[in-house]
Structure formats: structure tokens, C-alpha cells
Amino acid sequence: MRRRDRNDGIVNAALVALGPLAMVDNVVFHWLLAFHRFKQVWSGSVYVEVLLVLTGAAMATVGLVRERRARQRPSEHRDG
User: In 3D, which of 3, 14, 25, 2 has the Cα closest to residue 66?
Assistant: First the structure.
């Protein structure tokens, strides 16, 4: 296995893991449980939180697409 292939796998795994983590963190802890909210007034930070959820979804999608492409590449170590 080439070093680049190994690093690609680590990057893909990080994207797939951290994307949903960012989404769950924002939805559960910020929206549902209202952690980090000291005042109950609306602020513009809701736009930032929505952007973070979308960023998490994009990270997970990119990681999954990269991993799928990596698995479809022919392996250099196959006997043949």
C-alpha cells in the first residue's frame, strides 16, 4: 500500500467521522438542549449554526465520495 493511499484513507475517515459529529453537536446541544444560550433572545448566531450543520453534511458527503472512488480504483497489489 502506498503512503498516499494510507493517508487518503485517514482523511476520508476523518471527514466521515467529523461531519456527522458537527451536525449532531449543533442540532442536539445547541438547538434542542439550548446549551451555550444564556439569553433567550434571538441572535444572528443561528445563521452560523445552520452554516456549521451544512458544513458537517458537506464534510461527510465529500468523505464518502472520496472513499467510494478509492475503493473503485484498481489495486496495485492484485496478482494477475
Answer: 14
Query: Domains in the chain: how many in total?
Result: 1
Q: Write out pLDDT tens, residues 12-54.
A: 999 999 999 999 998 888 888 877 666 666 667 778 888 999 9
Burial of 71 (0-12, 13-18, 19+ CB in 10 A): exposed
Cα–Cα distances (Å) from 63 to 53, 76, 78, in that order, read 15, 22, 25
Cα–Cα dist 37/39, whole Å: 6
Do the domain assignments include residue 16? yes
- Please give the model's pTM, rounded to 2 decimal places: 0.72
Instruction: Classify residue 74: in a domain, yes or no.
Output: no
